[in-house]
Amino acid sequence: MTTGRQPRSPKNRWGGPFRLVLRLVVMGIGLGVVTGTSLKLLAPRLAQGASKAPSLDLGAARNSKGLDPGQFEARTELAAVSKRWSELAAAQQGLTASAFLLVLDDGRFAQLQPDLPLPAASSIKTPILLAGLEDLDNGKLRWNEPLPLTKEVMGGGAGWMANKPVGTRFPFFEAATEMIRVSDNSATNLLIKRLGGKTTLNERFTAMGLPSTAVNNWLPDLEGTNTTSSRDLAKSIAMVDIGESLSPRARDLFREIMGSSRTNTLIPLGLLQGLGKDAADPDSELLSFGITVYNKTGDIGIAYADAALIQLPNGQRAVAAFMVKGPFNDPRSTDLIRAMAAEVSKTLVGRK
């Protein structure tokens, strides 16, 4: 007769560990289910609590790191640039010139009759774009709102919309873009009408602090009755970039549309020439210097203009505007604008 335990069979030997593992698996699944259910029930409360948490003031954060977007305030005159502009203009008899430059980050500026009202030509399309995006921001119009083409707003000259049949409807975003991209005059007139007409728009320009800017006739306005000044043009661009006007989303749209402008033979080419370079595509060549230009020109033969936001290699931004009035199609007018722009890059960038 034997005594003590009977030896376990292989089945009995592995049964204990197997059951233990099985229990652990079951317990893990159970805990996962309970935890998931609890989090699902608590999620609304957690979200509510998060919404009540103090928000991060991005503006304060930017300012604390020295990334303030700047302001439209002239502080320290670049006297050498102002003097050089005056000399360049005085050397061209029969031309009337106006110019303004402001580095938004530190207030350095240069000027030449900056508040003199001159024929705006297509440069007035920049403040019109600003007004349109303000209404978009305020919910007064829709991004894809159709604007009907009528005989009243059909404008000759630049653009293609006037070639479409009367009654054709263009969405707001297309009219706004083509107004800048190819300087379409009919697109501009569509916006003028949609924004309330000439009188209403002029009142808005005054309220924006653009006292020399006025729409008196439909585009193309070859007689030059529509006016603006170099300071007004620079300010209409600066207000967007420093956050004084438009939401961040509308600001991005403004910059995107301005960046689509095809004409780069005035400020962009002048800046490049000031750096000792020349190119068929000034915008691409300027990128090698770390310079990006968002500009809109104007040209009605008796008057030329260009205004731009200039991204500088050191991260600062400047606004510049140049206007010249003179004899019809006088090449000295555009040459003068390029020469004044060249003084800007010589001073703010230097030669590479």
Task: Provide the fold topology.
Blueprint: H1 10-51, H2 58-64, E1 76-77, H3 79-90, E2 96-103, E3 108-112, E4 118-119, H4 125-137, E5 146-148, E6 169-171, H5 172-181, H6 185-194, H7 198-208, E7 227-228, H8 230-241, H9 248-258, H10 267-274, H11 282-287, E8 292-299, E9 303-311, E10 317-325, H12 331-348
Parallel strand pairs: 1-3
Antiparallel strand pairs: 2-3, 2-10, 4-7, 5-6, 8-9, 9-10
Helix pairs in contact: 3-12, 4-9, 5-6, 10-12
Structure description:
The protein has 352 residues and is of the alpha+beta class. It has a single domain, classed as Beta-lactamase. It is 45% helix and 14% strand. It has twelve helices and ten strands. A six-stranded mixed β-sheet has the order 1-3-2-10-9-8, with helices on both faces. A two-stranded antiparallel ribbon has the order 4-7. A two-stranded antiparallel ribbon has the order 5-6. Helix 3 (79-90) runs antiparallel to helix 12, helix 5 (172-181) packs across helix 6 and helix 10 packs across helix 12. The protein is globular. Mean pLDDT is 85; it is low at 1-14 and 29-67.
TL;DR?
By secondary structure, the protein is an alpha+beta fold. It has 12 helices and 10 strands.
Within CATH, the superfamily carries the name: DD-peptidase/beta-lactamase superfamily
Order of helices and strands: HHEHEEEHEEHHHEHHHHEEEH
Major sheet summary line: 6 strands, mixed
Structural class by secondary-structure content: alpha+beta
What is the CATH class designation? Alpha Beta
> Mean pLDDT, rounded to whole units?
85
Tally of individual domains: 1
